[in-house]
Structure prediction request, 117 residues.
Amino acid sequence: MLRNSLNSRQFVFYTAIGTVEWLALAAVEGRYVANYSGVPYVFALVITALALGAIDPKMPNLRAGIFLVAPALVLALWTAPRGDNDGLWMLWFPILLVLIFVVAGAHTLGARIGRRR
Prediction:
C-alpha cells in the first residue's frame, strides 16, 4: 500500500511540474512569439530532470521522463505554438517523444550525482 501511495504522489508531483513548465515556457510564450523555438522549455525541462534525479534517485529514469513530458504531449494539440500556421507545429509531437528519452538521461545523470553526495 505504501508503495502505491508513493508512486501516486510521485506521479502527481512530476506531472504537475511538467504541466507548469509546458504552460509557462511553451504554450503561453509561443502564443505571442511567431517563431518560438521552445528552447527555454527544453532547457528548463533538462535542468529540472537533473535536479529531480539528484533529489529523488530511486524514481525509475524512464518513468520520470514520461511523467515530465506526458503533460506536454496531452496538451500540445491545443496549446502548441502554431508559428505562421504552415503545419510545422505538428513537429512538436515527435520532438516531445524524443524529449522523453533526453529527460530520462538527464534524470539518470542527476541520480548519479545525487548518489555521490
Remarks:
- The helical segments are 2-32, 39-55, 61-79, 92-116.
